[in-house]
């Protein structure tokens, strides 16, 4: 029986609660063993507060999970939410777990794919300030995201993936009047991607229209230019069911799409829905 490793995330948040509730659920795939990493070493800290001790435990758990996956001890890693401000107190210098995992595993091409029952969104830029997004866009980064998304959809049995690519600027830049990124970067990227991976890749579409198309079932995934462009519609549709998948790693990694929820930590009010979905998606990825 294969083992899926699970971190508790920030123990000052709702991570331990959602993990506990998920593992008690009958909704999990019964054909896997589930192991909480470093469960006996979890520190006791005050709930709802940033803690350097809790952040140190996060890093220890992540390191154990990555090492175990690379050794073959674990078939997948599911990570509970973390607090980035707490991690920075430990000397953590990555924007998030995604970038740290890519660094630790040597992944050169990687991105976040957020998955729900009605919408999948992949991100060209991940944890970048909005003011930096335009300067971070390039034909290479956009095509890498399209390629990783296309490959993932093929793996899930979608023979001709339909990928809609979002514009960056309002109304797609209006022929350059409201931005030139579409003309100089996004349009050429989509054109080249169509040549390489098929006519199902189209765009750029205006950001205020693309998610309506996807919601109507006209896309298998949407490639977004920045974090909130993709996560706002996905969380509106599936806040307690969305899952984050890291594409491009040599290991399988999923996580819930929510944060540490300090405001309800320690009050037994957190929903385990997204954690259950994250664990079950990891199981599906192992079997594909």
Instruction: Tell the overall outline.
Output: globular
Structural class: alpha/beta
Q: Strand-and-helix sequence, N→C?
A: EHEHEHHEEHHEHEHEHEEH
By DSSP (H or I, 4+ residues per run), the number of helices equals 10
Uncertain segments are none
Largest sheet: 10 strands, mixed
Sheet-strand content, in percent, reads: 5-15%
Mean pLDDT: 95
From the alpha-carbon coordinates, what is the Rg to the nearest angstrom? 19 Å
Intertermini distance? 16 Å
Task: Summarize the helices and strands and which ones pair or pack.
Elements: E1 3-6, H1 15-24, E2 33-36, H2 52-71, E3 76-78, H3 84-88, H4 97-105, E4 111-115, E5 120-123, H5 130-136, H6 139-155, E6 163-166, H7 181-197, E7 201-205, H8 207-215, E8 221-224, H9 227-238, E9 243-247, E10 253-256, H10 273-287
Parallel strand pairs: 1-2, 1-3, 3-10, 5-8, 6-7, 6-8
Antiparallel strand pairs: 4-5, 4-9, 9-10
Helix pairs in contact: 1-10, 6-7
């Amino acid at each position: 029986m294969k083992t899926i490793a699970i971190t508790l995330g920030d123990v000052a948040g709702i991570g331990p609660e959602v993990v506990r509730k998920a593992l008690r659920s009958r909704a999990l795939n019964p054909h896997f063993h589930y192991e909480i990493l470093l469960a006996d070493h979890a520190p006791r800290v005050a709930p709802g507060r940033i803690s350097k001790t809790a952040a140190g435990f996060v890093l220890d758990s992540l390191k154990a999970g990555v090492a175990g996956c690379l050794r073959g001890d674990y078939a997948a890693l599911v990570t509970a939410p973390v607090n980035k401000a707490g991690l920075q107190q430990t000397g953590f210098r990555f924007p998030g777990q995604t970038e740290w995992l890519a660094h630790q595993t040597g992944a050169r091409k990687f991105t976040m794919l957020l998955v729900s029952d009605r919408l999948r969104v992949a991100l060209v830029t991940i944890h970048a300030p909005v003011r930096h997004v335009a300067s971070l866009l390039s034909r290479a980064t956009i095509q890498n995201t399209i390629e990783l998304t296309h490959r993932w959809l093929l793996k899930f049995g979608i023979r001709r993936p339909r990928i809609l690519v979002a514009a960056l600027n309002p109304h797609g830049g209006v022929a350059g009047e409201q931005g030139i990124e579409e003309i100089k970067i996004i349009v050429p990227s989509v054109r080249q991607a169509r040549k390489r991976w098929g006519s199902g890749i189209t765009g750029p579409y205006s950001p205020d229209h693309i998610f309506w198309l996807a919601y109507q079932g006209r896309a298998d995934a949407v490639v977004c230019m920045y974090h909130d462009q993709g996560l706002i519609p996905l969380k509106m549709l599936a806040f307690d069911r969305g899952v984050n998948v890291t594409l491009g790693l040599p290991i399988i990694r999923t996580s819930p799409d929510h944060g540490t929820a300090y405001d309800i930590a320690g009050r037994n009010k957190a929903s385990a829905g997204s954690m259950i979905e994250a664990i079950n998606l990891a199981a599906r990825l192992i079997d594909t």
